[in-house]
Design brief:
This protein is 47% helix and 16% strand. By secondary structure, the protein is α/β, with parallel strands linked by helices. The protein has 3 domains: 65 residues, 434 Repressor (Amino-terminal Domain); 122 residues, Response regulator (Rossmann fold); 127 residues, Response regulator (Rossmann fold, 3-Layer(aba) Sandwich), CATH 3.40.50. The strands form 2 sheets. It has a 6-stranded parallel beta sheet with strand order 2-1-3-4-5-11, with helices on both faces. A 6-stranded mixed beta sheet has the order 7-6-8-9-10-12, with helices on both faces.
Length: 346
């Protein structure tokens, strides 16, 4: 009885397996070669639209699904997966980037995997190594504040890599950046035009590319306006809005403190706004990055804005060019920024 039941079960399993359509079946129905089917499924750009339509119709008719796990086990095969490695998935800036990347990934029939470094270079290195071992087709990275030359040399030969928001020094790879100096200049010029001469700067890690560029923009704009750079008005190394709040409160509590504050990212701006509200002082605030619900603020704030999803879309487009074999020299694309006023005048 047991062997008969087992035999019947295996027979049913064999029928189910046999019924599963293959690429040969798709090729027969579409009237093309198996190679052409493979090229269509892998989104090869050198396939005629008319041929792709026939293959797509055959895939839909047969209910064909490729076995990505089996493909990943074969050396040299693509996995139709790309990865995005960011610092903090909870930050709206990074979720905006991910949205833009995912849009392009879907257009190219790829799955997006997102990893979170939490500002740790060790975590970043571990993530990238694991993603390469899993044979992702390409990597998009918001790098931490460390030397990436050896890491890129080790991993870049296995999967193309595009950097977002920051360009590691000495690394021959594509990068999509913001106009950090230009955006900061716009904000500081706005505060100077409003009559401010003692403008504080609240920032994160100055060794990170964005932090260094924005601080340089701050100093250059003061110098161009004939204003003195004061070390006591600059507070760096903060990573949370709570830390920024404490730093701004300390600055505002000093004799001869600032009359305006520039915050170099969205978390710093939130902290600065809390501090100004608590102090009760009439201190103007400007910041880099837009803020959610900023239009509801009871004070006006000048914000350097852009679309994070543009960063993601642009970087993902560069990555898919590399995946398809683009061998041009590394490119650096700069996304322009705009200064906008948010909130209500006092």
């Amino acid at each position: 009885m047991w062997s008969e039941a087992r035999g019947a079960g295996w027979a049913g399993r064999e029928e189910r397996v046999a019924a599963r359509p293959t690429m040969h079946d798709v090729a027969r129905v579409a009237g093309v070669s198996v190679t052409t089917v493979s090229r269509c499924i892998n989104n090869d750009r050198y396939v005629r639209d008319s041929t792709r339509q026939k293959v797509d119709a055959a895939v839909a008719e047969l209910g064909f699904q490729r076995n990505d796990m089996a493909r990943a086990l074969r050396p040299g095969q693509a996995t139709a997966t790309i990865a995005l490695v960011i610092e903090d998935v909870a930050n709206p800036f990074y979720s905006g980037i991910a949205r833009g990347v995912d849009e392009v990934a879907q257009q190219n029939r790829h799955l997006l995997v997102v990893g979170n470094t939490e500002l740790s270079f060790d975590r970043e290195r571990e993530l990238l190594g694991e993603l390469v071992r899993r044979r992702v087709d390409g990597l998009l990275v918001v790098p931490t504040a460390h030397d990436h030359r050896s890491l890129h040399a080790d991993l870049g030969r296995w999967a193309p890599m595009v950097f977002i928001d920051r360009a590691p020094t000495g690394v021959p790879a594509d990068a999509v950046l913001l106009d950090n100096r230009g955006g900061t200049r716009q904000a500081i010029e706005h505060l100077i035009a409003a009559g401010h001469r003692r403008i504080a700067y609240i920032g994160g890690d100055p060794s990170v590319y964005t932090g260094a560029q924005r601080l340089a923009g701050y100093r250059q704009t003061l110098r161009k306006a004939g204003l003195t750079y004061h070390d006591e008005l600059v507070s760096l190394g903060h990573h949370t809005d709570a830390a920024a709040r404490e730093a701004v409160l300390a600055l505002l509590g000093r004799r001869g403190g600032p009359t305006a504050v520039f915050a170099d990212n969205n978390r710093m701006t939130i902290g600065a706004l809390h501090a100004v509200a608590e102090s009760g002082g009439k201190v103007d605030v400007a910041g880099f990055d837009d803020l959610e619900l900023a239009d509801l603020l009871s004070m006006q704030v000048a914000l350097v804005t852009y679309r994070p999803d543009d960063l993601g879309r642009t970087a993902a487009t560069l990555l898919f060019d590399r995946i398809r074999g683009d061998t041009r020299p590394p490119r650096r694309i700069v996304i322009k920024t705009e200064l906008v006023m948010r909130g209500r005048p006092r």
